[in-house]
Design a protein that fits this description.
The complex is a heterodimer of chains A (117) and B (181).
Chain A: H1 14-34, H2 38-62, H3 74-104
Helix pairs in contact in A: 1-2, 2-3
Chain B: H1 4-26, H2 30-50, H3 54-78, H4 92-112, H5 120-124, H6 132-139, H7 144-165, H8 173-177
The chains are: A mainly alpha (117), B mainly alpha (181).
Chain lengths: 117, 181
């Protein structure tokens, strides 16, 4: 039976954060693909963007490509841009959902089939 | 990172974020899954703090947990006749396969690769530096063009949202209906 390590011998590495990020990204994919409500689909997209942010920050934290005290924090700048684009995307997508609702009285993506041949 | 607080914080916050992300998928009511989404955002912000990203964590709380979730509440409330159940479409099985595949792939790559990462003393030396000055220098220095493009993008998203949802009075009928459409 493997010995259970004491709490101060545990350590958190890059792989831990990447696994968490992969899990959240996978859940986000399931939510984005499998939900009927357009707003729920948008929630899945936001989950995926959040997982990507976690990956960027983890690599920025653990990267050994730069000398100590000289980290340029480019990952943080990327995350700022991802946040910006996510906010813009959420505003547009929710406006689209409200517009579709006003036309069709539904945001159920299975029933928005105007373009079906 | 082996300081005890960060280890405990990582396990608690990552468990919280993964479980509440699962509950976003499993909750029966759309508003409940929205609440779990906010919990996911907040625990993600905590994870960002364990990564010494203080500015991003605060921005995450402000933008995601604050404004985007309020936008979503508005969207749910503005579609009152739509179904509130968080039902699944016919794409549940491919979605599950794709999500599991991606998560397994990322997990395998993360565990299997020998990352050339900083550990121990070198990493502890950079615990919790102030990141705001460095991010400001980057945004107005190396990434200034992207910064400007992002501001233009935000402006056009604002205009686009207004144009999409704005009720144009239909020509001819608007006057007789009194514009109460």
């Amino acid at each position: 039976m493997p010995e259970i390590p004491a709490i101060d011998e545990l350590t958190v590495t890059l792989a831990h954060y990447l696994v968490v990020s992969g899990l959240v990204f996978g859940i986000g994919i399931v939510v984005a693909l499998a939900k009927r409500n357009a707003i729920a689909v948008l929630m899945g997209v936001e989950l995926m963007l959040n997982a990507v942010n976690l990956t960027l920050l983890a690599f920025s934290r653990f990267s050994s490509a730069f000398a100590e005290g000289d980290e340029p924090l480019s990952g943080h700048a990327f995350v700022v841009f991802v946040l910006t684009v996510a906010a813009a995307e959420a505003a547009i997508a929710l406006a689209l959902a409200v517009l579709v609702y006003r036309r069709q009285e539904t945001v159920d993506l299975d029933r928005v089939n105007l373009l079906r041949w | 990172m082996d300081s005890t607080g960060i280890v405990i914080g990582f396990w608690v916050l990552s468990g919280l974020s993964v479980v509440s992300a699962l509950l976003v998928l499993l909750a029966r009511n759309l508003l409940h899954s929205l609440v779990f989404l906010v919990v996911t955002f907040l625990s993600m912000a905590g994870l960002f703090i364990t990564l010494s990203a203080d500015f991003i964590a605060v921005a995450q709380i402000l933008i995601y947990a604050g404004s985007i979730s309020v936008l979503m509440v508005f969207a749910v409330m503005l579609t009152p006749l739509a179904s509130r159940d968080n039902g699944n479409s016919i794409y549940l099985l491919p979605g599950l396969l794709g999500g599991l595949g991606i998560a397994a792939l990322v997990g395998f790559v993360a565990v299997d690769t020998d990352w050339d990462e900083r550990t121990g003393e070198g990493l502890a030396a950079t615990d919790f530096p102030g990141t705001v000055n460095a991010i400001g220098d980057l945004l107005l220095g190396r990434y200034v063009l992207a910064f400007e493009i992002a501001s233009v993008l935000l402006l056009f998203a604002l205009l686009g949202a207004i144009v999409l949802v704005h009720d144009r009075p239909r020509s001819g009928t608007a006057a007789s209906e009194g514009g109460d459409d």
